[in-house]
From TrEMBL:
Lytic polysaccharide monooxygenase (LMPO) that depolymerizes crystalline and amorphous polysaccharides via the oxidation of scissile alpha- or beta-(1-4)-glycosidic bonds, yielding C1 and/or C4 oxidation products. Catalysis by LPMOs requires the reduction of the active-site copper from Cu(II) to Cu(I) by a reducing agent and H(2)O(2) or O(2) as a cosubstrate. Coiled coil: none annotated. It catalyses: [(1->4)-beta-D-glucosyl]n+m + reduced acceptor + O2 = 4-dehydro-beta-D-glucosyl-[(1->4)-beta-D-glucosyl]n-1 + [(1->4)-beta-D-glucosyl]m + acceptor + H2O. It comes from Lyophyllum shimeji. Keywords: Carbohydrate metabolism, Cellulose degradation, Disulfide bond, Hydrolase, Polysaccharide degradation, Secreted. It holds the Pfam family AA9. It is found in: Secreted. It is an enzyme of class 1 (oxidoreductase). This is AA9 family lytic polysaccharide monooxygenase. Its main location: secreted.
Amino acid sequence: MMVAEIAFAHYIFHSLIAGNTTSVGAVRQPQNYDPVEIENVTSTVMTCNVNPTPAIQTVSVPAGSTLGFNVLSESDNQIFHQGPAAVYLGMAPVPAASWNGSGANCSKIAEWGATFTPLVNFTDFGATQLTTTIPAATPSGEYLARIEQIGLHIPGAPQWYISCAQIKITGGGSGNPSKVSIPGYVNASDPSLTLSIYDPIPTSYTVPGPAVWRG
């Protein structure tokens, strides 16, 4: 694949899916389609991308409802690169609109890994949206919903496609998931980031970051 073709295949997560609502305004919009590169793995840009445009909404959604994001790309509005994806919830200690996502407040609630039949194929590849459900035990309150998809198409040079959206979870429970800081939840030497998906072809894969919490 030529470099121009790779660049043209960049994408962002442009709109939030929250229950029966779809919102562009709740998403802190990335400045462009460019991914976050591995050299920034310890930078605050890992939280919600590079200087995203502030969101203008915080969308209410009941615990147990659908949560996800739609893909917008420079070509065909789908995830173009092989690699894992995950959704995190960061419980905001202040109103979500004024929180930068710092601190150990983030829990992973969904992930998309790989199948091997016999070639490696990531289950999010080609998707136009990624959705999960908010665990029913999630405490009520304001959150940053963060999605990441990691392109592994260039061995040793993973690329993060990241967006955050502001939500208010209602009707929640008393769950207390383990939490991580972003950045800090992965490191540049993680084998799940440094591997080649082409040669040798992997026979197993662990999505980077913490375990998924479902309540």
